[in-house]
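Could you join me in thinking about how sequence relates to backbone shape in a protein? Label the sequence line and the structure token line clearly, so we can match residues to local backbone shapes. Once you have written the record down, we can walk along the chain together.
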Amino acid sequence: MRRMLAALAAVLGCGLALAGTPAVPAVGTLQFLAEHAVEGMRGGNLSGLALCGGELWAVSDRDDDRLYSMLPDETPGRVWQANSEAFVVPGTPDSGLSWGARTRIWLTGLVRGGVMDFEGVSCDRAGNRYLVSEAYAGVLRVSPSSTAEWLPLPPALLIQARAAGLLMINNAYYEGLAIDPDGKRLWLAAERQRRGLLRVRNDNGNWTCEGACVLLSEEGSILPPPELGSDQPLAVDFSDLVLYQGKLFTLERLAHQICRRNAESGAQERCWSFAAGALAPERRYDLPYGVAEALELDDKGAWIGLDNGNHARADGDVRPYVLRFAAPPEGWLGGQ
């Protein structure tokens, strides 16, 4: 099967290696600084973060019609208030999913809430916000005036993704995205079984693949951090994606780490663990996997948002949280 997928990927222009278990890099440890409960998100389930113009913007995978803005007050223990901005989704995107898949997605969304299943947010310097819909494998652009439109992503994107073994499992499509400041290049993170990185380019409004849509496709399983008390290996994953100073950074939920990657190839360069801070006894959830689903970086550190799915953590709190970690001593771009 792998040979067949690799051959098909090559025919379609997908010049990537179908990797097996990911390489294990040297891992540093991030220093925990503070936590902030978030109030005012109607659906909870904080699933994406982006720093735009001095504000942190958030999305919930249970809300189909609004973004949330928060002022990143770093006072330890300060509760953040989320302010909503409404928009209207213009139908569903034509991303190439079959009629049967779209029907199952629609029915699932009606039962669960959040038909679009927005899982990530990013922004360009013009103030446009980009939301990725995991359910429909599409990207919604919301202008500064709150006008929303689906990006016309190329049909080859889904074709090449599936030829590389990505986007094969319902509820495991795109889990994060990153846009460059000019709004010209867009990266997408496929969640799991297999996980991967993809890229498209905007040529005067025409979104195309830059030769190969897929930069990386890999599989494998790892044990969760020992704090979770599980001896059951689970699939490696990506839960968010950030473009910072020309590098990609992946949020890896199960491993509880952030990894720096080459933006042209997706190759892993350096990783840092946030497990010690996120899995302190009072912050732990009675779940066998991680709940970190949102990532943003700045020069001083990382913001990590938790999608707890309304589960209570050890101290009984069911609100979404954003955790603050210090940047590594050598900076995000230092080290080997």
In short: Residues 99-112 form the longest helix (14 residues). The chain has one domain: 2-326.
